[in-house]
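Issue 218. Parser rejects a valid record. Input:
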Amino acid sequence: MHSIITTESHRRALRATIDGIGPEVAEMLQSKGIDPRSFAAQIKHNRAAKRSLGAQLRQPTRRVANDIPPPPNAVKASLDRSDVQQQTLLNEIALQAVEDDFISDIVAPIQLVDSDSGRQKVASRTANRAEVDDNLGERGRANRIPSGLTNVDYLCKTYGLESDVNQALAGQHPTLESVAIETRRLATLVNLQQELHVVRSYLFTSTTYNSSNRASLSSGYQWNGGASANPIRDMNTAVAAMTAPGTHVAMSLEVLQAIQENDDLRAILSANHEGLFTADELALYWGIEEAIVNRGQYCAAGSTSMSRILSTTDLAIIHASSDPTMRTFLRQYRVRQGARGMVSTARFDGGEAGIAGFTYPKVAHQTDIVVVDDTYGYFIGNVKR
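Output the parser choked on:
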């Protein structure tokens, strides 16, 4: 007698039964001698630790000048550029100008280097998993194997923006205060441009990925209502294709909302198997440590409206490592200068412009974005129809 497999029985079989880990991932972990429950607990612990650290980092470490009430009878002084050494202060201001929505440093960790071009060593993809002849014999010499490191070449480009501060307005706003405000604005814009480079030109560009590590869902297969949609199969394919375990799954808010409409995923992932599930539950089911749901926006050149930084139709899974000796999907190689590679300067020009001249704050960096290993990620296009 043949058993009848219904949609509901199929969904029940796929439900996460080991602390949020899906059955296929749990089986894979067990085959490697890893306890799925311990693995799930470690993921949850790491998430909690990161969120706690993130909350601490978002707390202001100091109050800006505008927030500090002046003492009675205080006279607001306009500091001349020769009165103080601005470089350290401006570098620190630029370093702090990072939006909470920016993810480029997460998906493409920064590695500081000493020159604008060169070669870095990273672990080989296959050296530590290679089959070799280790037959020694009683008096034989051990087989010498090649180094477990491979080369990654980089060539940094220079990026930066400059603004101006009118010295004639020093009586209204102290010059140093105005320069600091402009430096922070410049640094935010410079960081935004780098965010766009990493996210739009690499993370959400399908050709960044190995040809075996990308898929584009055709009409009818999209996860939010396609008649032939099969997100479980698509995710299983993605996880299996990657040569390293996924550490991050990245998507925009629109993509998450579309995924949450899928009946199969709602049935196996949501707490009561009926309502919405979270991005963390989606990630955990496939053994992925962190889900990034990004709401960041920007105004495209020539446009007056805001758009999402992350794709509103696609999803990306990657393995990211901040360890400079380990392989990763993407890495930013940045010249070691200024504050963590970000250089801020303020140049005074008392020439023909204006009555008292202008101070020109500038923020710049030298960086190269490198695809270290295109099999350490997987791209699924057109998840949302």
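Fixed in the parser; the record now loads. The chain has one domain: 84-125+148-381.
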